[in-house]
From TrEMBL:
Keywords (A to Z) from UniProt: Membrane, Signal, Transmembrane, Transmembrane helix
Protein name per UniProt: Glucosidase II beta subunit N-terminal domain-containing protein
GO cellular component, one term: glucosidase II complex
Claim: Cytoplasm is one of the keywords in the record: no
Domain Glucosidase II beta subunit N-terminal: 13-148
Alphabetized PANTHER family for the sequence: EXPRESSED PROTEIN, N-LINKED OLIGOSACCHARIDE PROCESSING
Alphabetized InterPro entries for the sequence: Gtb1-like (IPR039794), PRKCSH_N (IPR028146)
Species this protein is from: Cucumis sativus
């Protein structure tokens, strides 16, 4: 058997790469799709989940909203009601609003919501990802906003508790003072009525 020439080897490599990319392009894009829904999206004609209309497989994730409920755009931000599924392998899978897809903020801990490559999202799923992070674990501006919001909520809760405690004390003092004033008034009325009787 004769060894392959470098030209035929490079041609075969080029051909296999072209076939790979052609197969990738022809396969449906399951970005943002829950694994249990992959079978739902595998037919040539797919019905919108709200039953309003149908669309062909080539319209799946084409960045144009065909279904009002967002069935056809699970992986883009085209539909206002759409939901994007973060697989978050190694952490907790979850849905996010599709408006957060490719918005330059890492919402999924696996970074799958920012697949256009305009921003680098490190995969933090193994490290706890979308679970509550400590203040030292901040990696995005959204995390900073979350931490600030939580701190404000804690401060607000403490302030509210202190205000309620202070309010309770004020109410108790007011009740005590009112009761004392009523007792003094009642005592004066008794004294006056006794003086009238003695006259």
């Amino acid at each position: 058997m004769e060894p392959r020439s470098p030209k035929s080897t490079s041609f075969a490599s080029l051909l296999s790469i072209c076939l790979f990319f052609t197969s990738v392009r022809s396969a449906p894009s399951f970005i943002g799709v829950h694994p249990l829904d992959e079978k739902y999206y595998s037919s040539e004609v797919i019905k919108c989940k709200d039953g309003s209309r149908s669309f062909t497989i080539d319209r799946l994730n084409d960045n144009f909203c065909d279904c009002v409920d967002g069935t056809d755009e699970p992986g883009t931000s085209a539909c206002a009601r759409g939901k994007f599924y973060c697989r978050n392998m190694g952490s907790t899978p979850r849905f996010i609003f599709s408006s957060r897809v490719n918005d330059h903020i890492c919402d999924c801990c696996d970074g799958s919501d920012e697949y256009e490559g305009n921003i680098f999202c490190p995969n933090t799923c193994v490290m706890g990802g979308n679970m509550y992070k400590s203040k030292n674990d901040i990696s995005t501006t959204r995390d900073v906003d979350i931490v600030i919001r939580k701190v404000k909520e804690e401060i607000t809760k403490e302030d509210l508790f202190q205000k309620l405690t202070g309010l309770k004390l004020v109410i108790i003092l007011q009740v005590a003072l009112t009761s004392f004033a009523i007792l003094i008034w009642a005592n004066r009325c008794r004294v006056k009525s006794k003086r009238r009787r003695h006259r």
